[in-house]
Amino acid sequence: MSAANLAQYGAFLLIVTLLVRPVGGYLARVFSGERTWLDPVMRPLERVTYRIAGVDPTAEMDWKQYAGCFLVFGLGGTLLLYAVLRVQPLLHTFDPAYRPGALAPDLAMNTAISFATTTTWQAYGGETTMSYLSQVVGLTAQNFLAGAAGLAVGIAFIRGLARERTPLLGNFWVDVTRAMLWVLLPLALATAPLLVWQGVPMNFSPYAHAAVLQPTAYDEPVTDPDGKPVLDERGQPKTKKARLTEQIIALGPVAALEPIKNLGTNGGGFFNVNAAHPFENPTPLANLLELLSIAVLPAALTYTFGRMTGRPAQGWVLFAVMLVLFAAGLLVCHLAEQRGHTLAAEGVDHAASDLQAGGNMEGKEVRYGITVSAIQEETTTATSTGTVMSFHDSYTPLGGLVLITNIALGELIFGGVGAGLYSMLYFAIIAVFIAGLMVGRTPEYLGKKIERKEIMMAVLALLISPLLVLGFTGFAMAIAPGLASILNPGPHGLTEVLYAYTSANGNNGSAFAGLSGSAYYNWTMGLVMLIGRFAEIIPVLALAGSLVRKRVVPAGLGTFPTTGPLFVALMIGVILIIGALTYFPAYSLGPIVEHLLMQAGRVF
Fold first, then answer.
1. Hey, is 265 helix, strand or coil?
2. Is 360 strand, coil or helix?
3. No. of H helices and E strands in the chain?
4. What does pTM read for this prediction?
């Protein structure tokens, strides 16, 4: 790895680290009801919202009420978006020549579930399937709403550890409203003009039609108006090497969708190729803004956690775990791609030189190369965003293994907005439970005893993901409809299916590709998205509801310290060991065996 690579990676991680405290402190003030500089503008809007919705902002909820509101909110948004997509031909398109039809029931339901769960899995091409109003009224709106709901749950979990001897976790409707008005909407409004400045379109104009010269596959004869061949001065028929064709250039309100898809850790692009499209990601500065939009909010929630619990050091411990795992994954992914030898057996030269960047450039964005592609894909899979710049299907087996593992571990590095924090926290609870077993003492976390009920809820939340991913993958590999859509049989095909269900369960939305669109995968992945989003939230909130009732016990001589390098190492070990024990058998049949086959082909 060159010094330039390290400088780029180090600069990005440094910027994220420097923003954790100010952004995290702001989030703590917002959700604690403290005064912020946006209050003069947002307080009146907040009061109007509560009055229209009939919400009493002073009434708080226990975990069951909070979970019920979350479920109603998410499922209601799913049905509303489904209706919008089914009646799409009736909506204004702003382009009379381009009127997309209604989405098929399976695709409409898959897309509706996808955006209502922040997955934004795209089994369609945005610019060819969606109208402008579907993109803005349907998809962009759900990006805001679903992202705010996830942030609200993360804040409720923090209250479960911050409060004591009460059943109340806050008011879901208040948390969602404040997440929208004080966090997501201002950040989106601030980011969008910067992206427009960098070249991201923001219009409702008809698609542009441009005349271009297209090389011909063969020499086309030149004919006169009567259709007879035109002869040259030697009496031979004239031919043309190129022909004039028309290219349709998709435009639209891209800058309206781009900020919130990243801020809300959604990821679904306006265009089919997502962040590889020059209209979504036109410059290095635009790419940096989008990467920071993805990573900063989830990372900053660790400081919010420390601030709201009154123990800042605890928040920095969680951030340190995230940072170490992120840096390790980035290092492995970069080295795997830079030293990739996927075609070395065929004599392809992958060495860096003055004429080429070197490494495995297949499927990479040539404007940015392996370095930026690696940090983009590490960021987009370590969070639940899925804003892809390069095709994961073309990564080396080890590079792809890093990406799928980021999602499979629960996307806790840095995770989705809210989701990454509570995923990391229930790993912390499991870690202190294991530490307590090793030293023979009752485990405690932040002064609260971790007993049978808490560990059961944490383990239940942990087990939902592998049951869904491995169960649906195994079933798909055993029946004809599942096998029929696999375009790459063998271990790579298994990896593609495994990645698809991992991405759906993790509400990520990125894909390994290689699966042709089918009703079977639309329905089953929609089901996995629903369960992966909503079923996991219930034990998480139940865990918060149990913790919030406990009293805080002062630390004693037998208390296991949960700050410092020892606990950071323990948490990293627990996360990696649980992940390895859970998914290693499946990975050994997919990316690992594919890597060994690639190495055998290269050596022999």
1. coil
2. coil
3. 22, 4
4. 0.89
